[in-house]
Amino acid sequence: MDERVYAEVKRLCYSGLDGVALVRESVRRLCRVMPFEAYCALTMDPLSGLISQARAEGMGGEREAHVFLERVYFEDYPNAYSALALTRRSTLLLSEATGGRLDRSLRYRELLAPLGHGHELRGVFTVGRELWGATELTRERGRPDFDRREIALLQRVSPHLGAGLKAAALNSHPVPDDGSHDDCGVLVLDHRGRVLRFTGAAERWLAELEDPDSGWGEGRGPAAWREGRGLPAAVCNARGSLVRALKPETERDRESVPRVRVLARSGRWLTLQAMLSEPRVDGESETVIVIEPSVPREVAWLRAAGYGLTARERQIVDLVVRGISTRQIAQTLFVSEQTVQKHLSNIFAKVGVRSRSALVKRLFFDNISLSLFG
């Protein structure tokens, strides 16, 4: 049965599903051979490491969603997604991460234990060290922990899920529209995450980001937002990232930027930027979330991440876009022209092109031409 489920999940990863559908269908199949009572599945922006979309079952409601997206995700270090990705480890038991002391985990104390859950198996879906998604499979307290067979199955499917999520990002194509929805939206939240006011553009963009099947919370739309309910995961995670960036506790916090790119249902990439307003008379500041279509450069660098370009290769692409010659690139980077040519050959091979002009078109224009001229 394990082999059948593995084959089904692997097939899903290369069948052209969007990211959310891929994680949903994969988790459903895994549940056949490694039963669990609750799960959380995530897609992520590989550049910022922030959550772009989340789907959960058995993980509570709006309170739990806010606690996870705005706090636990940033503070639960014993089992952090980023740490697993950096060490190229695809799975980890919560019991192992905490040395058998589950209460060492903030996630366990704040979310799992109150819901009656105990053991948890976490998996990350990466390509190289770039994090494209993750999942947490959870069992009720009193049930056995996940065993070696179950861990091995999640390990086997993880690289395929990473490849599938990466392909979903690379192959997204925006739905043509009338060109009237390119304006910037603004969303203002109070200190409790409730929506105080928003622009018409923000409402349109939020509608594109809403996932009615996310499994967290009840109700969608303006009425729910004003009560702090139904906001897309990316909004909550961006707000939490802003808090961490302003009060850093780790090196990661100090380097973080509260900016996340999300693939909307229309196929367009949107960028969410979080910032604080000036303090009011009572001393409280509001959180301002700016939502707008990602500019070509942002889409290009997300796609560059998808193609697995190294840091040096991305530097060279940046210079190529500016029209700089091979000799000038070599002088700028203090390397030989031969080294530059070698890097360019590697870049062309990864992206699947044969020339500089084709490279620029593939990275910068292929996925935005429809939205610009549709």
Quick structural overview:
The protein is of the alpha+beta class. Helix content is 47%, strand content 18%. The strands form two sheets. It has a five-stranded antiparallel beta sheet, with helices on both faces. A five-stranded antiparallel beta sheet has the order 7-6-10-9-8, with helices on both faces.
What does this protein look like?
The chain is of the alpha+beta class and 374 residues long. It folds into three domains: 2-170, GAF domain (Beta-Lactamase); 185-295, Beta-Lactamase; 298-373, Orthogonal Bundle (Arc Repressor Mutant, subunit A), CATH 1.10.10. 47% of the residues lie in helices and 18% in strands. It is built from 17 helices and ten strands. The protein has helices spanning 2-13, 19-33, 62-75, 81-86, 94-97, 106-112, 148-170, 200-209, 222-225, 233-246, 251-255, 296-306, 311-321, 326-333, 337-351, 356-365, 369-373, and strands at residues 38-44, 51-57, 91-93, 117-127, 130-140, 185-189, 195-198, 259-263, 269-276, 287-293. The strands form two sheets. A five-stranded antiparallel sheet has the order 2-1-5-4-3, sandwiched between helices. Strands 7-6-10-9-8 form a five-stranded antiparallel sheet, sandwiched between helices. β1 (38-44) and β2 (51-57) form a beta hairpin. α2 runs antiparallel to α7 and α12 (296-306) crosses α16. The longest helix is centred in the middle third of the chain and has 23 residues, at 148-170. The chain is globular, with a radius of gyration of 21 Å. Mean pLDDT is 81; it is low at 367-374.
